[in-house]
Amino acid sequence: MPKTMQDAMEIATKLRNKKISTLVEYKTKKRLDNTSKNNQDQRRPNKRQNTSGAYTARHGEKKHYGGS
């Protein structure tokens, strides 16, 4: 139990600072975890990878586009 108002203010300040630093550490860790997760899935496959096969035809043949 604090003996004076000054002691009570010091205790309250220390508790508040501890809570703030804990919150900052939590947010920093969460941000770093999210960053590493996002960096792992950055590469996306090319959706138009096989389009050239729809247009290939031998000389003299007409091949119509069938759609996809």
Automatic annotation (TrEMBL):
<protein>
    <recommendedName>
        <fullName>Reverse transcriptase domain-containing protein</fullName>
    </recommendedName>
</protein>
<feature type="region of interest" description="Disordered">
    <location>
        <begin position="26"/>
        <end position="68"/>
    </location>
</feature>
